[in-house]
Amino acid sequence: MSRLSHTWKVLTTADVNPANQKCRSLPILSLRNQYSVNFLLSWLGFWSAFLSWFAFSPLIPEAVKEDLKLTSAQIGNSNVISLLATLVVRIIVGPLVDAYGPRKVMACLLILGAIPSGLPGTVTSVGGLYVVRLFIGILGGTFVCCQAWTTVFFDTNIVGTANAISAGWGNSGGGFTFIIMVALYDRLIKDGVSQHVAWRAAFAIVPVPVLITVAVLCLVFGTDHPNGRWADRLVISDSVPESPKSESSVEDKDNEVHRHRTDVILPELESEATKAVNQKLTPAVALKALSTPLTWLPALAYMSE
Fold it and tell me: Does 1.20.1250.20 match the CATH number of domain 9-232?
C-alpha cells in the first residue's frame, strides 16, 4: 500500500527542488501546478504537429495519388522533401529556443505550420505538392521545443522519464492522424463530396484548427521557466532546504544508562553530468557541449535509426 501511495504522490504532487525550482516528481495526473500544465502543453504541441505533418501519408496512396496522377517516384520524393525540411528547421530551432524559450518557439512553429497545412486545397500539380509538404515539414522542429520544455521544468532524477513520455505521446500524433484523416475523408465521400474536394477539405477541417488552438493554449496557459520569464532562467534560488534535527539524550530507564545518538548526514556525491545548472549560452559553452560525448554519442545513435 505504501508503494501505491508513493506512486500516487509522484503522479499528482509537484515535489520542487528549492535549489533550482525544478520538479522532482512527474505529476501528470494533476493540472494544479505549472509543472503539470507545461508537461501537458509540451507533448500536446508535439502531438498536434505530428498530426498535421503526417496527415498526407494516409491520403496519398488513394486520394492524392489518383487525383494528382502521381507516380510512385513522385510520392517518394514528396516524403523525402518533407523530412529534409525538418532537418534544417531543427538546427535553426535550437538557438531560437536558447534565446526565447521553448514555449514561444513552439507556439510560433505551430502557427507557421498551420499556414501550409491549410494550403493543400490549392495544390494542382506535383510541384505544388512538393512545396506544401516542404513547408509543412517546419512542424518537425517542435520535437526540439518539446524536449527542451520538459528539460527546463524537471530535475535530473525524473527528466529522462519526462522526456521519454512527452516524446512518446507526441509521436502518437503520427498514428492518430491515420485514424482521423481516413475517417474524415471517408465521411466526406459518403456525404457526396467528390474525391477532388474531400482530401483537400480534410486538411482545413482538422489539422489547421488543432494547430492554432494548441498554439493559443501554449501562449495563454504555458510558462517559460519555473522562475517565470525566460529572462529569469539564470536566477539562482537563495532557499536552502533545512537539515533534519539530531536526536540526543535517549535514556534507557531499565539499565539507567544514558545513551547519546547523533544523526550523521553525509553529502550526496554528484557527478558533473547529474547537476542541472542554468548557464548563459556563449561560444565557449556551446563548443564544450558539442564536444562532449554526452552530446554527440546520442546524436550518432539517433542518426543511425
Answer: yes
